[in-house]
Amino acid sequence: MENITTEKQKTVLSLIQPTGTPTLGNYLGALKNWATMAQEYDCIFGAADLHSLTVRTEPALLRKRTLELYALLLALDLDPEKNIVFVQSHVPAHSQLAWILNCYTQFGEAARMTQFKDKSQKNADNINVGLFDYPVLMAADILIYQSDYVPVGIDQKQHLELARDIATRFNSVYGSVFTVPEPFIGKRGASIKSLQEPEKKMSKSDTNAKAFILLTDTPDVITKKIKSAVTDSEAKVYYSPDKPGVSNLMDIYNACTGLSNEQIEAEFDGKGYGDFKAAVAEAVIEELRPLQEKFDRIVKEKTYLEQTAADGAERAARRANRTLGKVMKKVGLWKF
Ligand code: TRP
Q1: I need a labelling partner for 165 at 20 to 30 A (CA). Which of 83, 211, 272, 274 fits?
Q2: 209-296 adopts what CATH topology?
Q3: Taking 80 as the threshold, does the pLDDT of residue 189 lie above it?
Q4: Which residues line ligand 1 (CB under 6 A)?
């Protein structure tokens, strides 16, 4: 008799908020890796629209952004049949589990989250309870799928730690209910900085539109933005902490072409920043071209988007409800 024990494929989960068109930084730092992970793991990816409610947004705009983000996820070639690509609010079990986990999270723990403190300062006129509870909903997103790995950037690490603490605490009371998730340590995504202030992260909320490249920017716009990127007066291409602007452009070039720093330095030896920037712009345009073409096509196919989202939600809910049912029983809710 055959006795093959294959290790269960690990589950990877990550969500992204529909707060606007993602930037080149979001793409090279995270989304591009999602596409690679999708081939190797059991992946669940989605749009965290409930998280976006913590900041007041025009309803029609939130809906449009969610739909566009969903189309963009599909355009990444995440394979919605093998993996799950869904919208958070389509799976009610997330909110249900979040409520239960609230009762297993200490006020002090949530109050220590640095992102909450930052956001409270920035939105002093709307420090709502959702903003405070945001990391608990995120813990529910993760734990409800028994996720093994969560690829997160540095700004979400503390939230993942909290999810691990909640899971461990819950398990120690009720037996092993949740998989305790690990941060995904794979190929590290590039950390892309602002084109205008290369000490800062590239952010779509930057007041200077030249500081970031959006995934939907046209080739002309991309070229203009890269041409006006801040460099220095040395006119020599090499990687150094003293040259944050040039180093950032090298990171972008590396992430798009796979060329090492040495190879890039050799390629532009004796050439000025004009040639270098032109090559970086070309590489970015080529990198984004297939994604943009697919996005432009998919975003117009409303029926396809709706059907795929419905299918994703159904498959996600089936898995999420298994965990939710177990949790309800454990804590003593009347489940039948
Ligand atoms: N809070 C994350 C962010 O803004 C988005 C998010 C929501 C998330 N739920 C998640 C990320 C679960 C990873 C896992 O970036």
Answers
A1: 83
A2: Tyrosyl-Transfer RNA Synthetase (1.10.240)
A3: no
A4: 13-17, 48, 51, 138, 141-142, 150, 152, 156
